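tool_call: predict_structure(chain=1)
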Amino acid sequence: MNWVEAVGLFGSFLSSITFVPQVYKAWQSKSVGDLSLYTILIVTTSTLVWLVYGFFNNPVLLPVVLCNGFIFLLSLVLLYFKYTFKK
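tool_result:
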């Protein structure tokens, strides 16, 4: 692994964990009223597009796939919370 790939993986890791505190707080409080549905939908769509790009690139762009795959899953969790934690 060269240093450029290491930097990409580190950046991918940092980007991926940005949603973890939000998902944890939403799960803990059972409240997502302040979260914008449009923002969650935009994030979900953009990560799906980045996943397709990273996966079908030749060679596969591992940092792009890992980061966006994880963020995609977290955004799906937030969408799930948005519809199940309604008051």
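agent: Residues 47 and 68 are 5 Å apart (CA to CA). Proceeding to next step.
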